[in-house]
Amino acid sequence: MSAPGLSRLPGRLSRAGPGPWGRRLAALLSPGAGVAPVQVAGKKDHPALLPLDEGELEEQFVKGHGPGGQATNKTSNCVVLKHVPSGLVVKCHQTRSVDQNRKLARKILQEKVDIFYNGENSLAYREKREAEKKKQERKKRAKETLEKKKLLKELWESSKSAPGETPGGSA
Amino acid sequence: MLRVLLSGLGRRGGTRGWAFRSWRCRLPQAGLLSATELVQEWTAVFEKRGIPEARESSEYIMAHVLGAKTFQSLRPALRRQPLTPGQLQCIQELSSRRLQRVPVQYILGEWDFQGLNLKMAPPVFIPRPETEELVGWVLEEAAQRPSAGEAQGGPLILEVGCGSGAISLSLLHQLPQSRVIAVDKGEAAVCLTRENAQRLHLQDRIQIIPLDVTLEGSWAHLLPWGPVDLIVSNPPYVFHQDMEQLAPEIRSYEDPAALDGREKGMDIIVHILALAPRLLKDSGIFLEVDPRHPELVGSWLQGRPDLSLDLVAVRRDFCGRPRFLHIRRSGSPGGCPVGAWPGPQPARVPG
Q1: CA dihedral B329, B330, B335, B340 (to 10 degrees)
Q2: Considering just the CA atoms, what is the radius of gyration of chain B in Å?
Q3: Nearest to residue A115, comparing CAs of A15, A55, A40?
């Protein structure tokens, strides 16, 4: 049986209203070496991702009951981070560190919020289109180069053949 | 494949057999299990047996066998692949240990702290996630107040009760000019800290000394290394009366001396505070404590004006509990100490 006091992650997290999500401002008020808003360096022509407003976030960790610290051995360092205005939620358990997971959760949530509000204009979509565009250009150039080579080869072959013979003999 | 699994169980005796017999009936017919499926199975087994963090334990063991640190960081494709017999055997062995309430960190033999990977070995105390914030606070202070000692090579830090070396080594790692004196009364802890220091190539900047700070005059052994810029500790702070309520993972496998703070969990804390004035230059003392300690430490310090120490700040952990204390010499916001208190006493070894 799971220890009482372990927060069960709610099923439908997009539901608005209080529910089990009290504001965890206390957890954020005296942060540790903590969690500054994540800045993502913008590309040349594109503005950087807007930092998340900590006041709009609700964060949840798995808490044991009792005093915690030495009295508990907890390996569950999953962080659940909710952006209240949009209702977007990120669950991060990428690393074994609560601190790292908090930072990663913010980074992922920042990207999701960008997509949510900016849709096709979001950084993620723009980067994707750019990457796709570059890929197409590379393909096109490769194709052109190949065709040029083919043409040159045919000309070379035909100039070698004796006069009167049909040009473009064997490949 | 099933035979491999069950023969292992048979050897270990029948008491755990019932959980696996019922488990066997639910295995997919094809007999090819993926990581995701086997995690589900073991989670169910752990839950039935009342193992705390059933899912997390199962996932960590699986991730470890598949070469990752967490289950979520595994590529989804890898999680769906059938497991090899070797992998299944490994999971089987590790999971059996979890059924005996061995902490996951001891089962895996390693754990992460502040981005560093550390070897873990019973009975040496396993670093708690809260303690990462203690390190964070010390780093903030070190950044804001470059000590006079930096000219000679960074802050000199004393850690009391180094355990696996988590705090010392992460400070050394993030403060390239720092040096550490780490003490612990447990032989196993001293060995493990040494080993972790070597693994991380930090052994040249750390002195690890077997020492029990509660013994009379122990501080004298530290004088040769000179006054220190700051003291950091996650001392045993569990109230003695709470020791028997600790989970089996802790009670049965971790060194009780690393946890038991005796009367009101204060014993080692007060010894650290008492030796501080003899060893500390000025920066201060950073402690992790029980949430009941800020008040207790505050009152205790008031009753010991001879130490000239003030509790200057209390910080909460990520669960909102008062967890960390910063204690400093009275009347020193920083800079050169005023001559109100005596400097370190000349070494006077008693007896």
Answers
A1: -100
A2: 24
A3: A40
Residue in chain A closest to B247 (alpha carbons) equals A72
When CB atoms are compared, the residue of A24, A73, A75 closest to B250 is: A73
Supply the ipTM of this predicted assembly.
Answer: 0.81
Out of A26, A70, A102, the one facing B128 most closely (by C-beta) is A70
Q: Which of B131, B318, B319, B323 to mutate to test the interface with A (most CBs of A within 10 A)?
A: B318
Candidate from A48-62, A73-87, B3-17, B209-223 with smallest mean pLDDT: B3-17
Give the mean pLDDT of chain B. Answer: 87
CA A121-A123-A126 angle, 5° bins: 65
Residue B64 has pLDDT above 60, yes or no: yes
Q: Who's near A156: CB < 8 A, 6+ residues apart?
A: none
A161 token code pair: 């053949």
- Option in B242, B288, B320 nearest A71 (CB): B242
Residue type, B264: K
**Tokens at A59, concatenated:** 């964060």
Could you tell me the CA-to-CA distances from A134 to A125, A128, A137, A140, A142 in Å, in that order?
Answer: 14, 10, 5, 10, 12
Alpha-carbon span B232 to B159, nearest angstrom:
5
Model pTM score: 0.75
